[in-house]
Amino acid sequence: MDPWGEVLAEAGPGEEVLTVDFDPASVAGTRERFPALKDRVLGLAAPRRPRA
Hints:
The model has no long low-confidence stretch (mean pLDDT 80). It contains one helix and no strands. It is an all-alpha fold. The chain is elongated and about 60 Å long. 19% of the residues lie in helices and 0% in strands. The longest helix has 10 residues, at 24-33.
């Protein structure tokens, strides 16, 4: 699948190995236009509970 969800190749019902040519610049351009990965927060701690 490309960055927008378009299927680039499909396997049949049996076991297969697929190879696909894609343009890495297209992926980079999509990430610039839709920067969802910049919103992720890694290692976010659970909210603290107030002490009694």
